[in-house]
Amino acid sequence: MLECTNDSFTIDQRILFARFNIKVPVVGNMYSIRKKLITQNGPAYLLNEIINPKIPNENSGPEGEDYCFEVSWATFRFSILDLPEVEQEELDYT
Fold this sequence. Notes:
Blueprint: E1 2-4, H1 11-19, E2 30-31, E3 33-39, E4 42-47, E5 55-56, E6 68-69, E7 73-74, E8 78-80, H2 88-91
Antiparallel strand pairs: 1-2, 1-8, 3-4, 4-7, 5-6
C-alpha cells in the first residue's frame, strides 16, 4: 500500500488535469500500485484506485504519429506502507 504525501501540482498541470478531467491522488489517501513505470520524468505509478482517460502526448511518436497515454504519478508523491498481516481471529469482534 502507498500513502499519498504530496498532492501539490503546478498551475500548468492543474489546467491540463481540468481540461481532460484527470483525477489526482490526495494527501493522506491510500492507494495500491496497478503498474510501475519508467517515464521521461523518472519512476512513476499507475494506481488501482485512479484510472484516468488517455490524453494526447505533446510530442509525436518516433515516426511522427500521435499517441496517447494515461497520466501516471511520480513515486516521490508516495510513502510505501508496510502493513502487518492481520490474522482472521483478530478481525472477529464477537
